[in-house]
Amino acid sequence: MGLFGRRDQKGPGQPVASKTPESEVLSEKASIRNPGLDQTNPRQLLYLLLEGSGLSVLLTAPCGAEILLREVVRIAPALGRSSHWGRGFFRLDRDPETIWTAVDGPKGSALVVVCGPGSDSGFILEAVLKPFQVASLPLKMEMVNLGSTTSAVVDIVAGADVVPVWEVPEFSHLRPNSDGHMTLPLWARRAARLWERLGQELYKRQVRDVDGDDMNVLFGLIDGRIILMLGLGLASEGTGRYPALDGQGPYSLERIEETLAYVLPVPDEIDATGLSELSQRIADDFATGMAQLRQATSAPTLPPEPDGRLLWDRLEAAPEESAALRPFHWPALAPYITTERVRESVPESESTFESVNALAHQLRAKRKSGFEHTWRASGDAPISPSWLTIQSATFDPNTGRTVASGHFTHEVWDLPPAHDLGAIDGRNAFSFTEQGHPGGLLWPSATLYVGSSRSGVFLPLDSKANVVSVDLHGPTGTVASLEFLGGSTGAASLYNGTGQRRLLTVVEGIAGNEPIRFSGDGSWILITTASGKSILIEAATGRWLSLEVANAAWWPLGESSLLTIEHEDGKVVPRLFSLAANSYTRTFPQITLDMPMLKKFPYFWFPSVSPDGREILALTTAGVSDDYQSAYGAGDHLARITLEDGNGTLLHEPFLDSAQVLERDVREARWTQRPPQHSVQLHSDLAAKLDAPKTEHEHLSPARWADEAEAILVATLNKAIELTKAGQPMAHLMPEVLASLAPVAHNAAVWDKQSQWLIGLQQATSNLVPDGTVTGDHVAAWGHYGSAIAAIQTGRLDLLDPAATLSLP
Questions:
Q1: Is 708 buried (19+), middle (13-18) or exposed (0-12) by CB count in 10 A?
Q2: How many whole angstroms separate alpha carbon 348 and alpha carbon 468?
Q3: pTM for this one?
């Protein structure tokens, strides 16, 4: 081993050696130049190896590396018996301390063998030194000692790249397992030798296109492919400005890291002249395509025809960018979820717009929500974002699918949060206006929303109905909705896998706060009221039955059973009712709460049974004093009750402040875990009472809620215009715009009132796209709007689809 000395270590994993007397061979002293690159770059790694090794043996040639490598195989076959060390460097199988590679550059090529302190000097002498010494001219053996060598070697190494030797057939067995190219091949580097080098695998050349504009053309290795490309800006700005260029001829629009690129594949073995011509071609073709795009008509096209994909598949496959501007705090594995709002308990004479607004800001700072309805997980953690008010919601933890009813909060339009309370109790139309604060929504209808925690998207599905309660049958993905029609009339509907609505039946005698719930197997739907009765609907047919069993919920531990809470003689008693037997089958211990009940309202409403049948959640007014209730009324508070002993406790303090001004008002509560899929059988007496579905009512028209949708549409479009002018993102508003357009388009009077403005906006935004005034995500977003208006103008209202915005990049 005396052939190789040692030197102080240069860095982790680098060969070390100590200085020895200079070799007489090195008559022209020169030092290998430090390229100053990242240590992972093969050029830098070669420098570190040569500079740190006591002896490196080189076979150089004034020709390409292919010729050199074929000669090496012939005279030094031991090099062919090696394993890939990484980045084009190899270890000898016989002597793993010895590393070798090949380089190729403008001044020639070299086979470089770097000896380490533990290299086998005898083997190196016989397998490398002696064969190299007898190599045929013009091949020449050279040596490097601790980075010192001849100037000829320095010149070769300085401009050379490490060669993927497996491209030479004789070394193909050394190719690592990999799809595509691992590094740029020799022909590619030679073709780009006169280009500006930007990185290890990337080059740049500036060309002048047919319009006389200078463009930077990039050439390099991307994901195993060798391509030319033009960078068109940040990928987050979308592809909407260049739709006519995507897929034209050999070109494609692609997202490469954070950049949107116009891409052309490069044929193998192209030379420098061919690469230069190809770079000119991509620049000219892009300029020509853009000119044609500017000259093309800007008339919007119709939205695409339905492709038959399931709604949930579309939601779950949505790209990240679809959810980026609509952040949603999806629930963790919470045992239960609620929707609720906050009541303001202040004498009417003292409650002003300013005082309500101040309280709303305080609530938002503390709880991330104000007076609007919010969706919260157990532990009071907020789920719904501040831009949305949600009255009813459910989440299936097995699939991450979500259904809810709600609408925008006034935050979206930069209006004060006091308006959210005004939309609930009507003050936006009365007292707030009188106090000099007009505006805001007046009792807006609630839209059906759907979402997926897998993709993060959450968007409106249907604004043509005023949805007051929802449910989701997890195993089938079917959605149930209870829709308010007006007065005491409602309608029950189902939405199938593609998101199409099917009316089940009109129902009478509802207040608008009743829960709608699937049976375990999804075959029946229960609408329970607080007193008097419940409504049972067959999902397949819409046939319905009025049950003299109120305050009911599905019982999870047996088939065909309901749990009810009955109030008799001051007692509150849970009982089981069998639909199969048409009778009560079990009575549980009476409920006792850990605080007094209100004298006038000693009740529990709307129970929800835990999947294991041990507990129930129920709403009660308990928690406030009788005097408070007499002065301000009382909201509903959430109680958790153990069925085994009837013991119950309030899960939250009724008030959010010590002054008892801000009272919690829970609208619904439900357990998150799926219940067992028990089937339902009706007793013959009950089955005989099933009525045919009621499918006709004047308020079933899709135009029923056009006035409410109009207010949301106008406010949201105005905000979208404002954001577009400011160059800020607005694509997140487009789902609600498309959803609101549907009821507006169905109502002739409302459409006539707004059509001139809506169509004018379509034309204006379409004309701004070709000249580049509207760019990025704005192009795609306004394109969806333009297509929706085109659908309305051609009578294709069936094509209005808020989920179409999921194609926004």
A1: buried
A2: 28
A3: 0.66
